[in-house]
Amino acid sequence: MEKYIIFAKSTCPFCVKAIELLNEKQLDSKVINFDDTEGQKLLESVKDTFDYRTVPMVFAREGNQIEFIGGYTDLVEHLSTDG
Known about the structure:
Elements lengths: L2 E6 L4 H12 L4 E5 L3 H14 L6 E6 L2 E6 L1 H10 L2
Parallel strand pairs: 1-2
Antiparallel strand pairs: 1-3, 3-4
């Protein structure tokens, strides 16, 4: 069963929407907030690693396999094609 990991900021409306979507669908998820200064630095490193500029950054994990899905719109698309 997939578990979702969301890298988010509490001030981001699309982060809130992604979290709400997963909650509505009762999907297992973990939210990692990057609101403090240290978190901001780490988030910038993660964004650079994936060459991705915005949050949320949504990942799907199944067992030891982790797939980068993208942002909110990508999550909506992923869930609609996932059955």
